[in-house]
Amino acid sequence: MICVRSNPSPAPQEDAWVTSYQRLVPHGHSVSLSHQHSSIPISISRVNQFDAARLDIELSAMLKEQLVKVFSLMKPGMLFQYEPELDAFLEFLIWRFSIWVDKPTPGIALMNLRYRDERAVALRGKVRTGLEGPGLTFAQKMWYCVAAVGGQYIWARLQSFSAFRRWGDSEQRPLARRAWGLMQRIEGLYKAASFGNLLIFLYTGRYRNLIERSLQARLVYESPNMNRAVSFEYMNCQLVWNEFSDHNPIVYHFESAQQYFFSSVMNVTIILTLYRRCCCCFSPLLNSSTVKSFLHPFSKDKSSSSKEDDSICPICWASPTLVYLAFPCQHRYCYYCLRTRCAAVPSFQCSRCSKPVVAMQRHGSDVEHKTQSQ
User: Fold this and answer.
1) Keywords for this entry (predicted)?
2) Which of 33, 73, 110, 330 suits 294 as a labelling partner, its CA being 20 to 30 A distant?
């Protein structure tokens, strides 16, 4: 058997690893830069962002209410003509003490959010959560103030001025009508753009309004470990309102069933309270006997009618001091009770026998006819 001995491979050079390292260094730098430039995809709750905007609006309304109370003793309506300036002043104060000093607005802070500049590259750290990144730059802060504070003020003042001067009327000059039409087009374009931005925001969760999208100022979480602040105030109000809505039909049916009885009692009560006491006997008109006399026709027990005392007035159910007789039935009444009934109703009928009363006579004197008394 013949053995063939192969030639041994040449030994590697001592600095070969240095050459390989230098060749791989650019590739390693490119990989690290690509990882550094790539941002971790994060999802920010859209509800939190909308709640933050709502809280900021409510805060502005509270500040405005307190500021208006300061001028409550001054001339009424004085602040109405300066309302755009007042709103702009409050918005400027909120911007000055929040965004300008690298702090979130009160509503954004309550929702654990902050503004981040999406154009800047986040520095690479040991641990990355996707929430890293610098805040807004000086230019972004200034443009935010110009757009959010100055833009709203100029537009509100321009709208009030054009409405006061009636630029939209046909009798105005062509220049005024042209300016009014231009304002309407600008407003329509802004609303359409805002609606499109809303749809994009609902899909991506970035940039609530056009100002944030133009400045690339995105809302991200301030702390990744903070729980969401949940408020049940709206839910409680909704539950209470639903319960009241469910009970309304029951109350309505109960009221319909008792409508005739309660309306009759209330009508009699209103009439009797106009005359608290009888002028003759000075006895209260609105008492248990009066209510009993009113409810007597509706009572099922008719046996007590024969036992009534003829010496008391059948209207006020009291013993009359100045006794008058109704003719021709000659039943006893108080003068005031009988006189007011005869004056109010020409065909007044006796409360005891239901006969028409044609005259009235003081007990022990001549007959006084109703026509003469009127």
Assistant:
1) Membrane, Metal-binding, Peroxisome, Protein transport, Transferase, Transmembrane, Transmembrane helix, Transport, Ubl conjugation pathway, Zinc, Zinc-finger
2) 330
Structure tokens at 327: 């003719």
Distance CA 86, CA 108 (A): 23
Does pLDDT of 107 surpass 60? yes
The percentage of the chain sitting over the pLDDT mark of 90, rounded to a whole number, equals 26
Q: What b/e sequence results for 54-71 when a residue is b if at least 16 CB atoms lie within 10 Å of its CB, and e otherwise?
A: ebbeebbeebbeeeeeee
Token pair 């990744």 is found at 224
Contact status, residue 226 vs residue 111, Cβ threshold 8 Å: no
Res 257 pLDDT > 80 = no
* Selection from 111, 93, 114 nearest residue 102 by Cα: 114
Q: How far is CA 175 from CA 91, 171, 178, 187, 311, in A?
A: 33, 11, 5, 18, 92
CATH superfamily of domain region 275-298+309-373: Zinc/RING finger domain, C3HC4 (zinc finger) (3.30.40.10)
Q: Give the number of C-alpha atoms closer than 13 A to the C-alpha of residue 47, restricted to the C-beta side.
A: 4
What's the longest Cα–Cα distance across the chain? 174
